[in-house]
């Protein structure tokens, strides 16, 4: 269930398989200064998950960080109608029945801007990912722009990640690289991320990297 990483920062890991590959999934929950919860990339909801989240505080924000991590949002939005659903504008086309209250943009919502910064990683129109910085814990949250799978029992997963040059590293996969259509736009976006103060990197797929996160991620994007 929910596992604390730092003060006001929690994660929940779940199994996740796609295309025959075992990638794992992760939801991140941040408790805001006023006590409400900001939830990044919600995982499938069940009774235990809902109870664990509600025990931490009232849900204030449900965040879809890119155009792919949204399948579980409708259930969460229905379960927590008072929460504000935060997503990219392009998600309205993919999820026309999803209630979207806030469109991600250059500036974070006032309700979480005190502790969370956000940056649009441009140049990948089919992905349109936002990354987030939890300032108090110096933690960067990434979704699909980089994996950190150091071990896998799946031969297919290991093979794909080794071919990508990603196995055992914090780095983008072959698929992510193929989605980059404007390298300069992505480089410019990442320059803003490199200016942030972070040590830990929480990925949606793979292991949390507790230290050296900025250097590892910069190395992962050296190809750019």
What's this model, at a glance?
This is Methanol oxidation protein. This protein has 7 helices and 13 strands.
Q: Can you count the beta strands?
A: 13
Radius of gyration: 16 Å
Helix-strand string: EEEEEEHEHEHEEEEHHHEH
Helix content estimate:
25-40%
Shape type: globular
Distance between the termini: 37 Å
- Just give the CATH class: Alpha Beta
Unreliably modeled segments: none
- CATH topology-level fold name: Metallo-beta-lactamase, Chain A
Quaternary class: single chain
Can you list the strand order of the major beta sheet?
1-2-5-6-7-8-9
Looking at this structure, what is the CATH superfamily? Ribonuclease Z/Hydroxyacylglutathione hydrolase-like
Q: What count of domains describes the coordinates?
A: 1
Count of helical regions: 7
Name of the CATH architecture: 4-Layer Sandwich
The share of residues in extended strands comes to 15-25%
Mean pLDDT over the full residue set:
94
InterPro entries: DUF4336, RibonucZ/Hydroxyglut_hydro
Protein name: Methanol oxidation protein
Pfam families: DUF4336
List the helices and strands and how they pair.
Blueprint lengths: L2 E4 L2 E6 L2 E2 L2 E2 L2 E7 L5 E4 L6 H10 L2 E5 L9 H7 L4 E4 L3 H4 L7 E2 L12 E5 L9 E5 L4 E3 L13 H10 L9 H6 L3 H12 L5 E3 L10 H8 L4
Parallel strand pairs: 6-7, 7-8, 8-9, 12-13
Antiparallel strand pairs: 1-2, 2-5, 3-4, 5-6, 10-11, 11-12
Describe the structure.
This protein has 7 helices and 13 strands. The termini are far apart. The protein has 224 residues and is α/β, with parallel strands linked by helices. The chain has one domain (3-220): 4-Layer Sandwich (Metallo-beta-lactamase, Chain A). A hairpin with a 4-residue loop joins β11 and β12. Helices cover 25% and strands 23% of the residues. It comes from Hyalangium minutum.
């Amino acid at each position: 269930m929910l596992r604390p990483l730092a003060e006001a920062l929690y994660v929940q890991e779940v199994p996740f398989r796609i295309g025959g590959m075992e990638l794992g999934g992760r939801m991140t929950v941040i408790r805001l200064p006023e006590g409400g919860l900001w939830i990044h990339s919600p995982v499938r909801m069940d009774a235990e998950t809902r109870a664990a989240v509600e025990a931490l505080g009232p849900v204030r924000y449900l965040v879809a960080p890119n155009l792919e991590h949204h399948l579980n949002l409708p259930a969460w939005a229905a379960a927590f109608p008072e929460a504000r659903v935060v997503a990219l504008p392009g998600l309205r086309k993919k999820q026309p029945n999803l209630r979207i209250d806030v469109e991600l943009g250059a500036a974070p919502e006032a309700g979480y801007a005190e502790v969370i910064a956000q940056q649009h990683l441009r140049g990948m129109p089919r992905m349109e990912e936002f990354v987030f910085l939890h300032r108090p814990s110096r933690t960067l949250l990434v979704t699909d722009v980089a994996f950190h799978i150091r071990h896998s029992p799946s031969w297919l997963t290991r093979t794909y990640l080794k071919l990508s040059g990603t196995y055992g590293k914090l780095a983008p996969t072959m698929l992510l690289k193929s989605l980059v259509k404007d390298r300069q736009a992505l480089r410019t976006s990442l320059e803003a991320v490199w200016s942030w103060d972070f040590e830990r990197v929480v990925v949606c797929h793979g292991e949390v990297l507790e230290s050296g996160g900025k250097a590892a991620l910069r190395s992962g994007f050296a190809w750019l």
